């Protein structure tokens, strides 16, 4: 391949990214194998984490704060929200320092840097699938036990779209942060704190139906709101998500993705001189 300088014009060569799709798959397998080789329980951690988190939320927000779960058993409510949020947070946090974490690799060989964020999003799907299986089996268990909950199979139609949307959102925000951390290293320390605040500003521990009307406009501009609410709605038949919410979330996500690609492509040419 002939590598030509891009000059001062910011470009995004998506064709090259597609040509290096095998490299993205290799990075995915590397991350997957590395994680499981260094753990004793392996994929069980993906079950333990949402289970303990859901139980903690149940005690704090369900029993103490007495926050409604839209008529759903609290465990199902929290796990369904957690698996969407965890995937978004994974894509965001693991893409927030792409240049610094891969400085040695980037400095030795050329390939489209966007391959790395894509492989991160692919790796996160593994945990999401395991946690969705947990949610599915737990739901079946609640149904068999006679709890007033129904499993709607329409979730299997909506789930791929939800996963794809959250992947684009997480990668888009991650690209913005990774590009900015090249110059402003403080962001690397703040991203965990900001992500935690973002979670509490999202319908993870409470449904949007419990938000006062005068504050609901905030959730229209929070792009993770629609997928969280849509998973519950499509799986358990809770209140549907308004089209306006999805449209607004899609617009915000589109802006974040375009901004992320622009900033990432711009930072790519000078990152190795700065990191």
Rounded radius of gyration (Å)? 20 Å
User: How many domains in all?
Assistant: 1
Cα-to-Cα separation, first versus last residue: 26 Å
Low-confidence stretches: 1-10
What portion of the residues fall into strands of 2 or more residues?
Answer: under 5%
Overall strand count:
0
Please state the overall shape, judged from the principal axes of the Cα atoms.
Answer: globular
Q: Biggest β-sheet: count, sense, barrel? A: none
Order of SSEs: HHHHHHHHHHHHH
SS content category: mainly alpha
Please provide a brief summary of the model.
With 275 residues, the protein is an all-alpha fold.
How would you sum up this structure, described in words?
The protein has 275 residues and is mainly alpha-helical. It has one domain (41-274). The protein is 70% helix and 0% strand. It contains 13 helices and no strands. It has helices spanning 14-19, 21-37, 45-64, 74-95, 98-101, 103-106, 115-144, 155-181, 186-200, 216-220, 225-236, 243-268, 271-274. Helix 3 (45-64) crosses helix 4 (74-95), helix 8 packs antiparallel against helix 9 and helix 8 (155-181) packs antiparallel against helix 11 (225-236). The radius of gyration is 20 Å and the shape is globular. The two termini are 26 Å apart. The model is unreliable at 1-10 (pLDDT under 50).
């Amino acid at each position: 391949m002939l590598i030509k300088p891009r000059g001062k014009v910011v470009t995004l060569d998506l064709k090259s990214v597609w040509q290096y799709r095998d490299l993205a798959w290799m990075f995915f397998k590397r991350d997957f194998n590395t994680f499981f080789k260094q753990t004793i329980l392996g994929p069980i951690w993906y079950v333990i984490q949402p289970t303990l988190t859901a139980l903690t939320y149940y005690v704090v927000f369900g029993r103490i704060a007495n926050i409604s779960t839209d008529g759903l058993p609290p465990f199902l409510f929290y796990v369904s929200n957690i698996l969407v949020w965890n995937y978004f947070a994974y894509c965001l946090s693991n893409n927030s320092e792409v240049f610094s974490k891969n400085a040695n690799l980037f400095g030795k060989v050329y390939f489209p840097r966007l391959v790395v964020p894509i492989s991160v999003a692919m790796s996160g799907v593994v945990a999401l699938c395991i946690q969705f299986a947990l949610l599915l089996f737990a739901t079946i268990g609640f149904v068999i036990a006679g709890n007033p909950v129904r499993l709607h199979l329409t979730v299997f139609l909506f789930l791929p779209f939800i996963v794809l949307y959250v992947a684009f959102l997480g990668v888009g925000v991650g690209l913005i942060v990774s590009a900015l951390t090249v110059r402003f290293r403080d962001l690397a320390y703040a991203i965990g704190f900001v992500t935690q605040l973002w979670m509490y500003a999202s319908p993870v521990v409470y449904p949007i139906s419990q938000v006062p009307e005068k504050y609901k406009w905030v959730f229209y501009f929070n792009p993770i709101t629609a997928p969280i609410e849509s998973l519950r709605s499509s799986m358990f038949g809770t209140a549907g998500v308004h089209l306006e919410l999805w449209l607004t979330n899609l617009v915000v996500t589109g802006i974040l993705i375009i901004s992320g690609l622009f900033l990432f492509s711009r930072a790519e040419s000078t990152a190795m001189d700065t990191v």
